[in-house]
Backbone:
C-alpha cells in the first residue's frame, strides 16, 4: 500500500501522537510506504483565500470555479499542490483526529476545504451520461480506500443509538459519507478510541494493537455499504426510492446493510 496519513492534533506526545506512531510503524515494518501530513507540525493554513489561486482581488471570488481554473492553469499555491500530489499518489488515506465539538478540528476541516478542490476531488461529469456528476462512490478518487481514526471522550454506550452524545455513526456521517464517499473513496469502518482523556497503559496497548491490525487489514476490509448515487437507489431528484427503507428516514437509510423485506 501507499498510505497518506493525515494527523490533526497539536501535541505529538498525546494519545493521538502515540497511536499515529504505532500505526505508521506497523505499516512500515510490513513494507508499506507511508507519508505523514502532520498538520500542526506543518503549520498548515486552514483558511481558504483568493491567494490560493492567484485570483484577481478586484473580481468576485467564486471558490469552486476559480479553484478549478487555477488547478487547470497550474496556479494553485504550493502547499495545496503538494497535498494534492500526496492524495493522488496514495491508494489509502488515513484521517486521524480527536473529536472536538462533534466534528473535526478546524485545521483538518481546512485541509479538506483547501485540498479537495473542484476538478480534483469533485465536480467531474460522467462522460457517458452528460449532466450527471460522478460522486457518492464514483468520484475522481474512486478506487482508493479511506480509514477514519478518531479519539473521543465518551466511554462507548453514551455514543450509541440512544446515547446522550448522539450515535457516533451519525456524528461521523458528514466526513465518511459527505466527504470521503462523495469523492469516491471506499470508506472502511472507523477505528474509535473511547475514554480518550483517561486511557490506562493496558487500554492503550489494546487500542494500539487494534489499530495495527486494522491498518494492515485495509486491503481486505469490507467497506461501509453506502448507497451509490448513480446505482439506481435514488430517483431523478436524488431522493431514496419509496420501496427502499419504507417508512424510515434519517442518515441510516443511505446504507444498504439494514435491508427491509422489500430490498432482499
Residues:
Amino acid at each position: 500500500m501507499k498510505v497518506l496519513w493525515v494527523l490533526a492534533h497539536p501535541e505529538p506526545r498525546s494519545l493521538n501522537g502515540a497511536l499515529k506512531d504505532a500505526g505508521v510503524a506497523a505499516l512500515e515494518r510490513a513494507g508499506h510506504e507511508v507519508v505523514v501530513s502532520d498538520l500542526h507540525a506543518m503549520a498548515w493554513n486552514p483558511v481558504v483565500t483568493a491567494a490560493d489561486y492567484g485570483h484577481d482581488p478586484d473580481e468576485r471570488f467564486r471558490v469552486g470555479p476559480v479553484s478549478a481554473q487555477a488547478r487547470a492553469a497550474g496556479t494553485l499555491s504550493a502547499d495545496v499542490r503538494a497535498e494534492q500530489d500526496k492524495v493522488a499518489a496514495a491508494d489509502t488515506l488515513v484521517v486521524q483526529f480527536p473529536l472536538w465539538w462533534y466534528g473535526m478540528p478546524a485545521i483538518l476541516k481546512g485541509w479538506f476545504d483547501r485540498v479537495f478542490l473542484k476538478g480534483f476531488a469533485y465536480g467531474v461529469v460522467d462522460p457517458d451520461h452528460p449532466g450527471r456528476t460522478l460522486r457518492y462512490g464514483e468520484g475522481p478518487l474512486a478506487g482508493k480506500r479511506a480509514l477514519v481514526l478518531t479519539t473521543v471522550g465518551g466511554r462507548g454506550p453514551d455514543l450509541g443509538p440512544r446515547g446522550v452524545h448522539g450515535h457516533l455513526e451519525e456524528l461521523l456521517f458528514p466526513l465518511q459519507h459527505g466527504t470521503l464517499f462523495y469523492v469516491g473513496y471506499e470508506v472502511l469502518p472507523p477505528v474509535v478510541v473511547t475514554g480518550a482523556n483517561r486511557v490506562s497503559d493496558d487500554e492503550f496497548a489494546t487500542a494500539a494493537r487494534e489499530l495495527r491490525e486494522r491498518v494492515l487489514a485495509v486491503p481486505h476490509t469490507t467497506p461501509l455499504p453506502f448507497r451509490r448515487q448513480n446505482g439506481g437507489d435514488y430517483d431523478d431528484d436524488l431522493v431514496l426510492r419509496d420501496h427502499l427503507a419504507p417508512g424510515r428516514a434519517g442518515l441510516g437509510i443511505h446504507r444498504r446493510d439494514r435491508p427491509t423485506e422489500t430490498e432482499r
User: Anything to note?
Assistant: The CA atoms of residues 15 and 199 lie 8 Å apart.
